[in-house]
Structure formats: structure tokens, C-alpha cells
Amino acid sequence: MTTPDPAQSADQAPVNHDGEAITSDDSAVVSPIDAPPTIDDEVAHERALRVGLDEYELEDADRALIDGELDEDGDHVPEAPAPVLAVVGRPNVGKSTLVNRILGRREAVVEDRPGVTRDRVSYPGEWAGRRFTLVDTGGWEVDVAGIEARVAEQAEVAISLADAVVFVVDAMVGPTATDERVVRMLRASGKPVVLCANKVDGPRGEADAASLWSLGLGEPHAVSALHGRGTGDLLDAAMKALPTESEHGELRPDGPRRVALVGRPNVGKSSLLNKIAGSERVVVDEVAGTTRDPVDELVELKGIPYWFVDTAGIRRRVHQTKGADFYASLRTQAAIEKAEVAVVLLDASNPLTEQDTRVLSQVVDAGRALVIAYNKWDLMDDDRRPYLEREIEKELVQLQWAPRVNVSARTGWHTERLVPALERSLESWDKRIPTGRLNAFLGELVAAHPHPLRGGKQSRILFATQASTRPPRFVIFATGFIEAGYRRFIERRLRETFGFDGTPIEISVRVREKRKR
Question: Do 270 and 284 touch, CB atoms closer than 8 A?
């Protein structure tokens, strides 16, 4: 005897007690027996299932998950926002090298020429058991124009949002007129400042570092960011200057939602950000790869503030072997990780490429909410658009749950449709289903479409709970293995019933056996 495929049987018409198909008139009459369960019924059902679990061997972690060690709203208690430490200084004094040394890995782009870092970039850091946000900035210069002036503005914004500042000076060169101007700006900001005398590779450079007392910022900490000399003492001083949590609302967890603009190079990410922001926020050029650092911009859309991160394009692996583009690609992944929702920009004038598919996979694998935006849609002929729609549906068959908008970054056509799509995806990303309702849903689903027999046995679902949100993660306790096809069937029905548009869903199964008597 074979069990019908749940995917097929799910589409069959329901039948009444006589085995006849229910018509619209039949289904209009609902008997008390067939009435939908109330909240009290769902809670009672949940309690009964919990009691039944006592017959099975559960681990402590299982109990903690089932008991829901969460706050009264059903979410984990958020941690206090980490304090922000900004690294500033004039160009080519070794700021990004110092950032990499503090992080213990190569994150910031470093090349032996000034001006590689153009925008402020944030990284999570930790020292002596304390976590903080480390912000790398472009070189600060005075009386500059063009892109250099924009870099200086970004550094000033980083100082205004920081809780403490590490001011990096080249000890081999000594204090310059630009350094003195930066000192005046730092004093005006009122932020705690830790002075870093970089490029002190040995005892001979200690005298050069001592000359920086003249800046009036206190003790200069002699450091070699390249070799790691003295960075521990510098960080100890920075931890003393930092408060225990950030005092800036923009960086708090309950602040504006974070949106990452991602896609392959030259697909129009920077143009789209400039268009929806209503100003030239980031550099746009026809040359692919203009953007190297993720650019954080606070943009208000329909009265709602969002943090937008315009990322460097993800290139083919053959181009990722060396130089700034390789590390920019790594930081694009980091931008996805720290965002809540990603807008993946695709080119409507070209078929879906392997690069596009890889970007989409990165967003889904990272568990972020997703909106797909097809750029250059205004260039498509009216006769071509219906065929293109069908092609897109075929290409994105695995991502039918993601909202899709057709836009033009150049003209701003239909960009206003991004806001409802973002709101829908984020709402789904945050959604939590009550445990009673989830188990009632699964009970009805399994009764109508039981799990296929496997080895002559049928796996039985004992209990289910939503372990977390962002993205929604569900844990099912069962008596045996749940096949991947059946898990996909459960996921599809979850989306149809509860409306998880725009978010990936994770379903894991824990197999538990009965206690031995």
C-alpha cells in the first residue's frame, strides 16, 4: 500500500462523511463538530501534547526549547547596544591596518597607497570580554574638493556617532597641520579620545611617539599596527574610554531597519540608492566596481527611516584573487550579515546569471528577509514584458515566496513600490506563531496528509514549536526521520496558511524515542 504524495493530495477537493466531494453549498454549512478550534482549544491541545512528551527521552536543551526561555513577547531579550569606537586620522597613517589588527582578521581593505578607504565601515569587535562596534573611516583632510571632501564628511559623521575615538597619527612623520585641525575637531565633539602613535616598530621610534604629547590629547600609545606591537595597551586604554553601551539611538536594535542593496557589479545599486534618497549620496560611474566600501545611509521613505547599505558588487571568483575587489567582495557578505533585509538588484535586460544566483543564495543562506528588484524594466518593450514575466517565474521557481518589484534606478520609475515590499518581508521575518496554533495546524495537516511510510514504519510528529524569529525557525519533535520532501510540503503550507512572504523558513527535526520502562 502506497501513501499518496502530499503535494498532489493537497490539491484534491475535500470530501464529506459519505465520501462525496464537498460543493460550495456543502461547505457553507459548518457543524459544531467541524467548527474551527478556539484559542482555548489550541492551548488545551498544546498542554496535552506536552504531557505526552513525558513518555519520550528529551534532553535538557529540548526542555528549554519547549518551555520557551523567552520574554513575555515571545522574543529573546535583546542585548544592550554595543559602544562604538571610531578610528580616524589623515590618509595613509595606517587606520585600516590597525582595524584589521584589532579584529584579528583582514576585513578592511589595505593597499600601499592613500585613499583606498572611502566610506565609513562598521565591524563587530571584542577585547577582554567586552564587545564593541569598530568603525573604520576614510582619511580626513582639510580644504579638499570632490570625492576627498565626501570622504572627510564621512569621517566627521563617524565621530558624531561614536562613543569614543582612536586618533591615529604617523609617529615617523610627527604631528602635521592636518593633525592639529583634526585635534580641534575632536575637542569640539567632546568625545573621549585615545591617541595612537602608529608605525613605531622598535625602541628607536619611542622618541618619535613622545613628540606627540604636543597635540594635547594625553599619552600617545606607541603602536605598530603592521606587526601588532603595543595594540593590547592601546585597546586597554580604549576600553576605559568607552561606556558600557552605546548612547546613540541610530545604532540601537530598536532603531531604523537595515537594508542591504546587493547584486553583481554595475547593475545599478548606487543609482537606485541615490534615486530613493533624493540626492547624490554615493559615487556613481559607468565603470563597474566604483563602490568598494558598504555605504551606510539613513534614508526616509514614506516617513519611515531605513539604514541603506550600498555594497560593492560581487564579482566572479576569477576576479577575486587579489587587490581591493577581493576584500570588497568579502565585505559585501558582511553587509548581508548585518542587514535585516536584502534588496537583490537584477538586470531585466539580461538573463539570470550564475553571479545573480550566487547573490540570492547568499541572502537566503544568511537567513535574511528578501526583496527582488528587477532594474531597467522601463527599457523593456510592452510586447516583451509578458514573456519576460514568465521567464522570471521559471528562473526564480525556488524563490516564489519573495516579493518582486520592477523598477528603473535611472528614472525612479516604480521605486515607491519598494517600501510595501520591504515592510511585507520584514513583517514576515519578525512573525511568530503561537505554539498552540502551530500544533493545531500540524495536527490537521498530518491527519489529512500523513507522512509516507519509510521502512514499513510511519514517522509521527509529537510536538512543534517556533524556536526563534528573524528568520522564523521551527523545530519538530518526531518519532522518526521526516523526509525532505515532506518538510518542503510543511513549509509550503506554513506559507499559505500564515503568510510568510519575503522570508526564508528553517525547519529542523529532532527524532526522540520512547523511554525504556
Answer: yes
